[in-house]
Amino acid sequence: METDKDASPSREFWERHYRGDDPSTPPPGPNAAFAELAGELALVPLREPERGTGAHRALELACGRGGDALWLAARGWNVTAVDVSEHVLAVLGERARRAGVEDRLTTRRHDLALSVPDTGSWDLVYANYFQTPVDIDRDAVLRRVSRSVGEGGLLVVLDHASSAPWSWEQRDDFPAPEDLWRSLDLGAEWTGLVCERRSRTAHGPDGRSARVSDNVVVARRRTGATPKGPARTPAAQPRRRDQPPPRTGTGEKEVLTGFLAYLRESVLAKLDGAPEQHVRAPGVASGTNLLGLVKHLAHVERSLFLGEEVSDWQATFHADAGETTAGVLEGYRAAVAAADRAIADCDDLGRPAHAGHRGKTAPSMRWALVHMIEETGRHAGHLDILRELVDGRTGR
């Protein structure tokens, strides 16, 4: 076992926490949520020729009792498991020996409150429930460690997003998955694969169980080279047949509404067939995602043509955990239908688009239509890029 030399309150806390652990007791299994995610990402099983080749290097932060590290090592990964507790790592090392995976599992004592591992390029860096009552700048740790992910490699962060009844942390103000993504501050070389809240059944002491939630973020590093290891480039998709600009009548209203309808259809097409697990995944460092853009456009339609007020425009870019793709699309279509009724009822584009509010006169219907065309066209372009990052599909 490799160690660092510094001590901190974090080390003292976790040494006390794990001091009763004994390698003679049954080893822990993997976190069920992580095992499920690993299957989705094709991290397991490794093909037989890849096992033990020195490839597929994984780094686990705050490994604790090491159930996930043991599980990956048993499936051919070369795992370095980092924790602050010397005792829990000694127990993990002995369990690895007994399981016959000591050649694929290295333990390293490291106090993440003080510094982060710097041991080369990884195919997978993961942090499962790296949440602690001890004060530590976790965001800084994750940002720094993300730099050691190799080309084509994955960064996986799995967090508690609710409190089980037996948890040491009883709170209801957990961040949203999009907040977790933004806290990582990943650069343009990253592609978001998963950014969502998931529900599962947790099992606690005395046989108790409860439904809890997790925030799940997965990102792949892309730097122009061919990805290696488990991170897979989305399969190329056939280009969607381009639809030419619409042929409209000669009237001003017909031209404006024709182009707006054309762009709205383009927006809907960008979510057609998109994998459910990817519609919330941020494709760029700002956290922008497919579902959030469509939700935002629905709010813009209702604001411009119906006069509905929006108190926080930034919030409209993020779909809540309980909102489904079908629900967001239904909301967008309903907003478009309501807007079209308001447009159809207007016989003079110079008139206000709606009744206004708080004593302010609404902009003209002409202005509202031009602005909606601009807004929809801009975000349709964003959607086009994000969809290509997801599965390679392009086209208007």
Mean model confidence by pLDDT = 85
Structural Rg = 25 Å
CATH architecture of the largest domain: 3-Layer(aba) Sandwich
Task: Enumerate how many helices there are, as a single number.
Answer: 10
Helix/strand-derived category reads alpha/beta
Beta fraction of the residues? 15-25%
CATH topology annotation of the largest domain: Rossmann fold
**What is the strand tally?**
7
Percentage of residues assigned to helices? 25-40%
Order of helices and strands: HHEHEHEEHEHEEHHHH
Provide the low-confidence segments as ranges.
Answer: 48-52, 225-241
| Main sheet: strands, sense, barrel | 7 strands, mixed
Main CATH class of the largest domain: Alpha Beta
In total, the number of domains comes to 2
Give a description of the structure.
This is DUF664 domain-containing protein. It contains ten helices and seven strands. Strands 3-2-1-4-5-7-6 form a seven-stranded mixed β-sheet, sandwiched between helices. With 396 residues, the chain is an alpha/beta fold. Helix 5 links the parallel strand 4 and strand 5. The longest helix is centred in the last third of the chain and has 27 residues. The chain folds into two domains: 213 residues, Vaccinia Virus protein VP39 (Rossmann fold), CATH 3.40.50.150; 140 residues, Up-down Bundle (Four Helix Bundle (Hemerythrin (Met), subunit A)). Helix 7 packs parallel to helix 10, helix 8 runs parallel beside helix 9 and helix 8 packs antiparallel against helix 10.
